[in-house]
Amino acid sequence: MRRAEFRSLLAEFVGSALLSGVVIGSGILAVTLSNGNDGVALLGNTIATGAILWVLVATLAPVSGAHFNPAVTLAFLLKKAVTPRTAVLYVIIQILGCIVGAWLAHAMFELPILQTATTDRSGVSKILAEGLATFTLVFAIFGAIRHAPKAVPMAVALAIVAGYWWTSSTSFANPAITIARSLSDSFAGVSPANVPGFIVGQFLGAIAATVISSVLFAEDTD
């Protein structure tokens, strides 16, 4: 394994772990501090997630592209911006990183490390929401890369911040995070039974965004 490849995989692991840890950890703390007000808890969860996304994308994009998300990696694979080998390695690392992040969040708050989520997020409407949330994320990434490269970290963060509040699923938009959140019986959790539907919606949203972005953000040739 080349040094550059190792650095990229390490960046994806660290970024995925920190993202997952912040999503789940902020959810745990938000519930503790909100005195039963789910709106306040969601607001705290939203702010923390948006903030860490900006930081992670800004600092790690030059190293690995800062995917931290199998749906984003799939989009870049479809654009032929990464090789199939890199895509497979990224997805494996992203899932492992997100799971480790969930465990670290549990450990910080002195909760059982191994958990299974019980929060029901079932229904076709939630799957549709995940498709739309992921579409928006991937669309924002490709649009910013084409027209405002320096704004990519902000575009990613704001797409997810908005998604927390306009989608019925609160915008997971990430298969690796979805898997990790199924292993956390917390405010950020999702029942394992809901995971397959979420992931299907997320990948379909990423594919649709990639296709449309290829048309809208194509470089002019005449």
Could you describe the 3D structure shown?
With 222 residues, the protein is mostly helical. The chain has one domain (3-216): Up-down Bundle (Glycerol uptake facilitator protein). The chain is 72% helix and 0% strand. The chain has helices at 3-33, 38-64, 70-78, 84-108, 124-147, 152-166, 175-181, 195-216. It is globular, with a radius of gyration of 17 Å.
Q: Return the CATH topology.
A: Glycerol uptake facilitator protein
Q: How much beta, percentage-wise?
A: under 5%
Overall strand count:
0
Roughly how many Å is the radius of gyration?
17 Å
Query: In CATH, what is the homologous superfamily?
Result: Glycerol uptake facilitator protein
Helix/strand order, N-terminal first: HHHHHHHH
* Major sheet size, sense and barrel closure: none
Give the low-confidence spans: none
CATH class identity: Mainly Alpha
- What is the mean pLDDT? 97
Helicity level, as a percent range?
Answer: over 70%
Morphology: globular
**Class based on secondary structure composition and strand pairing:** mainly alpha
Which architecture name does CATH use?
Answer: Up-down Bundle
**What's the N-to-C terminus distance?**
42 Å
Number of domains: 1
Tally of helical segments: 8
